[in-house]
Amino acid sequence: MLAQRVASAAVAIPAIVLFIWAGGPWYTAAVCLIVLVAAYEFQTAHRGRWTPLGLVAAGLVAALPAGASVGLDWLLWFTMGGMLIPLVWVTIRAEPETALTDWTWAVSGLAYVGLLGAHLVLLRELSEGRDWVYLTVFATFAVDTAAYAVGRTVGRRKLAPRISPGKTVEGTLGGLAGGFAMVLLLNYFLGLRLEAALIVPLAALLPVAAVLGDLAESILKRGMQVKDASSLIPGHGGLLDRFDSLLFTFPVVYYFVTWVVP
């Protein structure tokens, strides 16, 4: 398992660095693809198989980051389309027994994967957005890596056994500490150089958001009675399983930068 995780990271990290550096259409296209796959996993994990509406819903979710790259108005319009098109779909099919469930799940994917995922593009579009994206991605990865290492080494007490039986209190504390330290280090080495009064609160918030994002996906998977969103990434599960913490940390960093950072 560990060897698979390391091998997957060795392949993915250079590509992540490259796309973030490139920015623009290449970065947006990469985010749209990630969101598309994650949304498809979300839809198929719920139903246990693919469906035409699930494919349509995943495609609508993937359009949201593209809308975000154009502007917030476009993001709003695409969101409205993502809500209305599945509703029209279930209306035309005229199956009252499943209509509400099908539409609700389509909209859930739109909000969870699409709207939250659109912040990957919104953050990159800000001034110094490239550095903020690097900080967000690698600080989030640090939370996951530190939690895994500490949990495997000294983890004893279960954090939330009904949600995620493998997570421990010790591992979570290690992840919070690792993420905190990584935010401070990246703030310095990326040249952002925010003063302590600004960067310390972010260093505390980001790891908490990462942990909550991981737990949020875990409880959704428990509701769907699946262990992983898919088996796409060896040693990690599905793309959504790797993307879950980022869905929470990117909005936190985006609104922190836009509302707090001068």
Produce the secondary structure layout.
Layout: H1 2-22, H2 24-47, H3 52-70, H4 72-93, H5 96-117, H6 119-124, H7 129-154, E1 158-160, E2 164-168, H8 169-189, H9 196-224, H10 239-259
Antiparallel strand pairs: 1-2
Helix pairs in contact: 1-2, 2-3, 2-5, 2-10, 3-4, 3-5, 4-5, 5-10, 7-8, 7-9, 7-10, 8-9, 9-10
Helices, by number, come to 10
Apparent shape: globular
SSE string: HHHHHHHEEHHH
**Rg (C-alpha, Å):** 19 Å
Strand content: under 5%
Numbering strands along the chain, what is their spatial order in the largest sheet?
1-2
Task: Report the sheet with the most strands, covering strand number, pairing sense and barrel closure.
Answer: 2 strands, antiparallel
Give the CA-CA distance, first to last residue. Answer: 44 Å
Low-confidence stretches: none
Overall pLDDT, averaged?
92
The figure for the number of domains is 1
Based on DSSP secondary structure assignment, what is the total number of beta strands? 2
Helix content: over 70%
Short characterization:
This protein has 10 helices and 2 strands, in the order H-H-H-H-H-H-H-E-E-H-H-H. By secondary structure, it is mainly alpha-helical.
Describe the protein's architecture and organization.
- The chain has 262 residues and is mainly alpha-helical.
- The chain has one domain.
- 81% of the residues lie in helices and 3% in strands.
- The protein is built from ten helices and two strands, in the order H-H-H-H-H-H-H-E-E-H-H-H.
- It has helices at 2-22, 24-47, 52-70, 72-93, 96-117, 119-124, 129-154, 169-189, 196-224, 239-259, and strands spanning 158-160, 164-168.
- A two-stranded antiparallel sheet has the order 1-2.
- The longest helix is centred in the last third of the chain and has 29 residues, at 196-224.
- It is globular and about 55 Å long.
- The mean pLDDT is 92.
